Amino acid sequence: MPPVLGVAGTVAVWWGGTRVFGIRPLFLPAPPDIVAAFRAQPGYLLREAGATLTVTVAGFALAVVAGLLVAVTLTAWRTMERAALPVLVGLNSVPKVAVSPLLVVWLGFGSRPKIVLVLLICVFPIVVATMAGLTSTPAELGELGRSLSATGWQTYVKLRLPWALPQVFTGLKVAVSLAVIGAVVAEISQPGDGLGAVIVLSGMSFDTPLAFAAIALLALLSTTLFYLVVALERLLVPWSRAISG
Amino acid sequence: MIRLAGVSRTFTSRDGDVEALRDVALEIAESQFVAVVGRSGCGKSTLLRLIAGLLAPTGGAVTIDGAPVSRPRPDVVLMHQLPALLPWRTALGNVMLPVEIRRLPRAEYRARAADLLDAVGLTGFHQRHPYELSGGMQQRVALCRALIQRPRVLLMDEPFSALDALTREELATQLQAMHMSAPATTVFVTHSIPEAVLLADRVVVLSSRPGQVRRVVDVHLPRPRSFGHNAYTAQAAECAAELHELL
Lengths: 245, 247
Hints:
The complex is a heterodimer of chains A (245) and B (247).
Chain A: H1 2-20, H2 31-40, H3 42-76, H4 78-93, H5 100-107, H6 111-134, H7 139-147, H8 152-189, H9 195-204, H10 208-236, H11 238-244
Helix pairs in contact in A: 2-10, 3-4, 3-6, 3-8, 3-9, 5-6, 6-8, 8-9, 8-10, 9-10, 10-11
Chain B: E1 2-13, E2 16-28, E3 33-37, H1 44-52, E4 59-64, E5 67-68, E6 76-79, H2 91-101, H3 106-119, H4 135-147, E7 153-157, H5 165-181, E8 185-190, H6 193-199, E9 202-207, E10 212-218, H7 233-246
Parallel strand pairs in B: 3-8, 3-9, 6-7, 7-8
Antiparallel strand pairs in B: 1-2, 1-4, 4-5, 9-10
Helix pairs in contact in B: 2-3, 2-4, 6-7
């Protein structure tokens, strides 16, 4: 109940504020203006939201696969890790928005450069979290494996990988929020469709309620994706919350 | 059966060498229960890891049945101070881990795992996860995991030290019962003199830094022994006093 009250209260204060101070919808639309903006062209907005969702999910999925592969490879070969880490840190420190125009040069218009931007933005937390998880196997578990003469593969599959899962999910939760940001950044900085493009267009035509409708849809999209990851975590690693207390 | 001849172990670190054990000579007969006592940092854990084949001695030799120990053996099992259970596996699943890793017949060992869990009083908890169990219960699961492969040698590194006093006594008594019914050669490292007197046929007293065998005390009390009052209280107290003196 408190969460519902919190949300309802915030909306009420916002609504009341626009009324009491007579703020024009051009600057801050009231909630009904936003609902009206959505209801004026629901098909259009949902189609654009669908485009953003596709780019987000595709980029995120690629980031998960790439991130896990990179982390597993790097932790398997110590030398490799030491060689690759400075490169990774360097790449991560580049503001990803800066490469957005370049991606268009390399990959052309359409969704491909957007998906790649999402991938670039959200792959690092997955790599870092997975590597941290894979290297945090407690000493006594390592010794248990050795005293049982477990093969490298058995140690990996039966001990290290499951042990890393809670930390992998920490990375995934950070990454999924970044994925939505990445998609919007791509849509704003590259021509095409998506909710980011809707926001750019509505800004040009001073249609603030439409921009807010797009922002509200983005918030909804981001929250839903985040909780889907949380649900997956509860399903796959129910023990994680229990041991972290 | 287990023989340590002039065993030394030195660890090399950045701040110089640390001599953990020096010239340890020890012979442990088949199915004997030996307790190792000594102050913290006297190399007790190192001693166990040398017998387990997890560490190599820097001097001397460790042999089991005459064969030098160079790597972990399937008939030697090490039990830790921490239960070291896998949080994603049930109690039964944890006990079955060695069976899976060693690729032993699962069906047969599954029944044995269930029997072991029942024997340590975990009936009804087979399908629980470690986080649903108390510390004492977790350590019982770890004991079952150690015993599942019917080890000939059981190495225990302060297995009960993280538990409260009552649970500790209970588990020690249970361990005694299990040792009497199916004796494995056991080396039991402990800080607790009463525990050593309760469980051991012989108590090895180690001196500190570097660890050397100060004395081996034989415990001639009839079994089953108990922590409570019994006919041998005086003898037990005498033995404990002697060990206190040596530490």
